[in-house]
Amino acid sequence: MPPMELGPGQPPMELSESMPPPVGYNSTTSLSAKSPLLTYLGILMITFLVVASGTAYKVVLIWIRERRLMKELQESPSLNPSAEQTSLFVKANLKNVRIELDKIHYIESANEYIRIHLEPGEVITTFMRLKHMEATLPAQKFMRVHRSFIINLDKIKAVEKRRLLIGNNSYIPIGEQFKERFDDYLRQKTLDLNPV
Fold first, then answer.
1. For residue 1, what pLDDT band results from cuts at 50, 70 and 90?
2. Which of 89, 92, 94, 184 is the most core-located residue (most Cβ within 10 A)?
3. Which of these, 192, 184, 190, lies nearest to 158 by C-alpha position?
4. Is 125 exposed, middle or buried (0-12, 13-18, 19+ CB in 10 A)?
5. What confidence tens digit (pLDDT) does each residue in 174-196 have?
6. Domain range annotation of the chain
């Protein structure tokens, strides 16, 4: 292969006898004799092919990593939010206490503490913020309805204008910023006997 003539402003390229010519090489060398503009277009085409192949590789790599991560999340029970959580442990009275989620009526904020109200009238107080507890509980069973209350959706006995009856005698207010989300939940669960 004869050595390549370098034009003004062209970077040097090393070509070995064993290396195949780059894509578009023949077209750029044959066109370079006719017009310098075509030479630059040929170089631009080769640059585009190199950049595009690198971008395509990155897209495929991202796709493969995303698929692996999704598979790991689905297989890991500790990271899978759909895994059925039935209980949790909280620290109360210098010991870890196990609480069955089905027995929780509602959770009330008391500054840095929360009070967990259980079925037989039992109350467990623990040092934790309500926001942290909300993130721990399964969203399909519990909902925050006020800045100071999280309720167990299965324990709602009645819904009045701006408050909920939980259990037999506990009324929980519905906060303004949580009202729309609760109303959406209520619409999904309400049986409409007179559809329009």
1. very low
2. 92
3. 190
4. middle
5. 999 999 999 999 888 887 756 55
6. 25-75, 87-189
pTM: 0.56
Residue 143: which of 88, 111, 106, 193 has the closest Cα?
106
Residue whose entry in the numeric block shows the structure tokens 């309720």: 151
Nearest CA-CA partner of 143 in 189, 110, 111, 112: 189
Q: Which two tokens stand for residue 183?
A: 């109303």
Q: Looking at residue 107, what DSSP letter applies?
A: E
- 49 Cβ contact partners less than 8 Å away, ≥ 6 residues apart: 23, 24
Q: How many helices (H) and strands (E) does the chain have?
A: 4, 10
| Residue pair 99/118 in contact by the 8 Å Cβ criterion | yes
Contact (Cβ atoms closer than 8 angstroms) between residue 105 and residue 114:
no
Provide the token pair at 177. 């910023």
Q: Which two tokens stand for residue 184?
A: 């959406």
> The tokens 């698929």 sit on which residue?
67
Question: To which residue do tokens 């934790």 refer?
Answer: 128
129 pLDDT above the threshold of 80: yes
pLDDT 10s digits, 13-62: 554 555 555 555 555 555 555 666 666 677 777 777 666 666 666 766 77
Residues 6+ apart with CB under 8 A from 148: 108, 109, 130
Does the domain made of 87-189 have the CATH classification 3.40.50.1820? no
Contact 143, 179 (CB under 8 A): no
